[in-house]
Specification:
single chain, mainly alpha, Heme Oxygenase, Chain A, 0% strand, disordered C terminus, oxidoreductase, Haem_Oase-like_multi-hlx, pyrroloquinoline-quinone synthase activity, EC 1.3.3.11, Pyrroloquinoline-quinone synthase
């Protein structure tokens, strides 16, 4: 079949990918949101997820460098501002480092990206390369996991507040802010993909790009589960459970 499906059907196809493949269903997230992670596992998640967060503005900068259309650049550049923030006030990356501090980690250690699992680096770097190299419609389509992000952020906020003593408004500021930012981002991204994937070939490629992104997210959690839930599986270079920990507090001990 070469004729593209209508926008409604194509939108439904994209939503089905998220329904089947989004990482909210991963066993590690089930553990985390249900209060079943140790603080070592929580810290490992914070350390490894930071690598993803820190590369998002780099990914978006790579995307912007390829855009000839100034209107597209204007619409997209807010994503960099969301994560990097201004010189004085922090964006998403600094909010993530506040979470790191809340769970008992040295933010400077987390920002150094030491101890990030090899599989995490591989997956995240592959995503940056994908956005740098693929056609723009596929690059935008890969961002459409944001369609499903508000649900996981809401579940995460509720689960962390219920089960972990470190969780408070300051620690969870990243997730609360993304509840405002993600819908704006996805409104533009979805509209762009629906308008520009105007052949069946482009629709198939966009769907494959979204599938690829769900694989990137899922594989990061696979790496965490293998290293920190399965005994004795931390690979060379992975966080050892001790480096960067600034000392136990009542807040962190409560969830051990």
């Amino acid at each position: 079949m070469t004729t593209p499906t209508d926008k409604h059907a194509f939108h439904a196809r994209l939503l089905e990918i998220g329904k089947e493949r989004y990482h909210d269903k991963h066993p590690f997230h089930v553990m985390l949101h249900g209060g079943h992670c140790t603080m070592t596992q929580v810290r490992a998640w914070v350390i490894n997820r930071y690598y993803y967060q820190s590369r998002i503005p780099m990914k978006d900068a790579a995307f912007l460098s390829r855009c000839d259309d100034p209107d597209l650049r204007r619409a997209w550049r807010s994503r960099i501002e969301d994560h990097d923030g201004g010189i004085d006030e922090g964006g998403g990356i600094r909010r993530w480092l506040r979470l790191a501090e809340a769970v008992g980690l040295d933010p400077a250690y987390v920002a150094s990206t030491k101890g990030v699992l090899p599989a995490t680096r591989f997956a995240v770097d592959a995503y940056v390369s994908f956005v740098r190299e693929k056609p723009l419609v596929e690059a935008v389509a890969s961002s459409l996991t944001e369609l499903f992000a508000p649900k996981i952020h809401s579940e995460r906020i509720a689960g962390l507040l219920e089960h972990y003593a470190f969780a408070d408004d300051a620690a969870l500021a990243y997730f609360r802010q993304r509840l405002n930012e993600a819908p704006r981002d996805v409104e533009f991204g979805l509209s762009f993909v629906l308008d520009h994937a105007d052949t069946r070939e482009k629709q198939d490629a966009a769907a494959a790009a979204l599938t690829f992104k769900t694989d990137v997210l899922w594989s990061q959690l696979d790496a965490l589960y293998s290293a920190y839930v399965t005994p004795g599986r931390i690979p060379p270079g992975g966080w050892d459970g001790e480096e960067g920990v600034v000392g136990k507090t009542i807040a962190t001990e409560a969830a051990e």
